[in-house]
Design brief:
The complex is a heterodimer. Chain A is of the alpha+beta class. Chain A has two domains: 107 residues, 3-layer Sandwich (Rieske Iron-sulfur Protein), CATH 2.102.10.10; 105 residues, Alpha-D-Glucose-1,6-Bisphosphate, Chain A, domain 4, CATH 3.30.530.20. Helix content of chain A is 16%, strand content 33%. Chain A has a six-stranded antiparallel sheet with strand order 1-10-9-4-3-2, with no helix packed on it. In chain A, strands 11, 12, 13, 14, 15 and 16 form a six-stranded antiparallel sheet that branches. In chain A, strand 6 and strand 7 form a beta hairpin. Chain B folds into two domains: 79 residues, Glutaredoxin, CATH 3.40.30.10; 109 residues, Glutathione S-transferase Yfyf (Class Pi), Chain A, domain 2 (Up-down Bundle). Chain B is globular and about 50 Å long. Chain B starts with a strand and ends in an 18-residue tail after the last helix. The mean pLDDT of chain B is 97. The chains are: A alpha+beta, B alpha+beta. The structure holds glutathione and FE2/S2 (inorganic) cluster. The site of glutathione has 13 residues of chain B, from helix 1 and helix 3. The site of FE2/S2 (inorganic) cluster has 8 residues of chain A, from loops.
Amino acid sequence: MNRWFAVARGTEVPRRHVGHYLLLGQELAVWRSDSGAINAWENRCPHRGVRLTLGSCEGEELRCRYHAWRFASVSGQCTLIPAHPGQKPASTVRVRVFAAVEHDGFIWVNLAQGESPTAPTRVAHVLDSTRSIFVDAPLYAVRETLLDGYPVDSTASRLAVWSKDAYCLSAGNPDHAALVTFLLQPVTDFQTVIHGALHTTVEETARLARLRRHNAAMGTVRDEAERRAAAATGGGATA
Amino acid sequence: MIRLYDHELSGNCYKVRLLLSLLGEQYERVPVDLHPIRENRTAWFLALNPHGQVPVLDDSGFVLCESNAILVYLASRPGVPDQWYPRNDVQALGRTARWLEFATRLSGIISAARNHDLMQEQADIGALRSKARSLLRVLDEHLWFTEQAGRGWLAGEAPGVADVACFPWVMLSGEGGIDRLPWPAIARWTDRVKRLPGFVPMSGVFPASPGL
Ligand SMILES: N[C@@H](CCC(=O)N[C@@H](CS)C(=O)NCC(=O)O)C(=O)O
Ligand code: FES
């Protein structure tokens, strides 16, 4: 699918950390090189298939946990096979890499292979973002729940949510600019992550309280979407 | 002289080995066979710990069982920096007790799931995994907000026994078939723990590359 999806907030993939993410059933190792390049790799070592998220980020290279083969940032090309240190690894020995960019405060990944990726999605005016919420429900159930309203405050108003497209919904009072944009990440056919981009600022002391309100409201959305998904599949929630 | 009655694959023993190593403490390890010999049920061992479980600490004749109790004791000895058991800061102390309790909840559930997967013990594995998920969600949420407030540790400004008590059971959750993919804030915290000076791994736990 030639489409960009937010998989994480940019600040949540610090240098020297290998993040483990899933997008449309594809397992990803997401990491930032010391020079700042964002990598979204198939989470599989080309040698024996071990998960690269078990490995370690060594600056401009990722090192596999199992036999310590090293792979270069951006290209995924193998640079060193410790068992044959004098030999240059063949150019065919490389990790499968996906297109990845960081903008508007998020890391975006496009799984399209062999075709040039479409222009990335942009979200205007991102000033902060909420904690991303993992939901055990398919994207359509999360979307439907959000479209029914977003309880930004448990006691007061429920914000209306209006649609931009299937993966990107904005919420706010329809007479004003959007307050929050939800970026939906289809994790698998039955799991979704909701990312929230905030479009207004508050002073630092109020910031944490606001993030907590959104976290609670998104948790309510999660619980409702999971309830609907379980009802639709006739009972037991998927593990 | 500190002696630790220990079992390599035990998460509760790993808590104690981890703290001893972070404190730079020399100690003697006495391996206790839990399977198949069940040395932990012999008279000599039951005299040390009537519960018949590891870990047990012997500090020059002072004998203590229960991993959390051992952590509190080790971190409270004179000369150990205050951060590990913040006895002069009541709120940090309260939070420490809270996360030690959390570690106990986590270890009960994750060890049961792990014993089911690795040793074919009877259990309602679906219920265990769903309980583990609820606990990890609470932990991830706490750590995410901690990061937002500019801190990185469970109970205070610095790493402490609360982090040491929770770390092994978070890391061993995969061996009970519990997925940590939904919890990126937990993953970043485990990297921070792995980068503490003196960190030691156990079987199934890998060190991190040096940080920046
Ligand atoms: N509450 C104790 C639990 C210790 C425990 O569960 N020990 C396990 C190993 S992780 C054990 O000795 N099992 C053997 C048995 O119970 O027979 C603590 O935290 O130290
Ligand atoms: S499996 Fe990765 S180096 Fe061998």
